[in-house]
Amino acid sequence: MTKKLLSxxxxxxxxxxxxxxxxxxxxxxKAEEPAAxxxxxxxxxxxxxxxxEEAAEGSKSYKIGFLAPTLQTEFFxxxxxxxxxxxxxxxxxxxSVSFDNDSAKAVTSIENMVTGNCNVIIAxxxxxxxxxxxxxxxxxxVKIMECGVQTEVYDVCINTxxxxxxxxIGEMASEWINSQLGxxxxxxxxxxxxxxxxxxxxxxxxxxxxxxxKDAEILxxxxxxxxxxxxxxxxxxxxxxxxxxxxxxVCYGDAAAVESMEAAKAAGVDTENFGIFSCDGTAQAMAxxxxxxxxxxxxMFTPLAPMMAEYAERVLNGETFDDVxxxxxxxxxxxxxxxxxxx
Length: 343
Fold this sequence. Notes:
Blueprint (H helix, E strand, L loop, with lengths): L1 H57 L4 E6 L5 H17 L2 E6 L4 H13 L4 E4 L7 H9 L3 E5 L8 E4 L2 H19 L5 E6 L4 H17 L4 E7 L7 H12 L5 E4 L2 H13 L8 E6 L2 H9 L3 E7 L2 H13 L8 E2 L2 E5 L3 H4 L3
Parallel strand pairs: 1-2, 1-3, 3-4, 4-5, 5-11, 6-7, 6-8, 8-9, 9-10
Antiparallel strand pairs: 10-12
Helix pairs in contact: 2-10, 3-4, 5-6, 7-8
């Protein structure tokens, strides 16, 4: 009896052990499931991180540096203001520097832009004196854009045939001389020999007048420097004293022309029969045309700041430009001023 009882108890113990063992297998399986879920979560997090990094790369912020010969004339101020807006709209950083027509300062400014992590330098340099610094910047991975001048070092160059621009200015002046003065023009040309591009523009002015206004006389060609504030005023005061019969001034740029216009008005010239012609299409020059002042015409370029920003973006995206990118021009006179200027 006792043996039977012990045998029964042993059998029950074994049965419980077996049942317990069988019941524990599914629990172990369930314990593995969270591990699988954790692995999925880790993979998902890695994928999201990669996507975030790709998004950050897609919206990468760049830094643009603008190097100008001066930031004191309307032409360059308008480019500076326009670039600020264009860069802000793209989420880019922006810095501008005037090298004040000093090549040594321009070189230092280029070096500072490189150490300041600029991705693109927009260089409106005067001549090839900065080529070595620009080449060093390229070697450091900076994209170089030249504008208004063409040297040997750039990734993209925005320029216009400067001789053709000079011809366009000279043709405007010649047409006015022939129609308003009966061809009897007494002309002074304001140019600069600071770089080849501006020399070409000045030569284009002279050649056009010689061809189109054959009875006009070019009294003098004056080198007034490049974008020197006040040069137009002082030179015009001197020219009016030197040539009492002076009735036309043709300038390579609007900055000198606007100063000349004010100096001529102050001297009491006959505004109807005194003409000033130039290039840049600034608001001040066009306001003078609209008002019937001595400023009679200007050559206007395609707005440069949006164009600069566009091509900066394109070179940053890997595009290359073997040919010079040209900007279109239009002659603005009293005949079409209302199309391009409103007060």
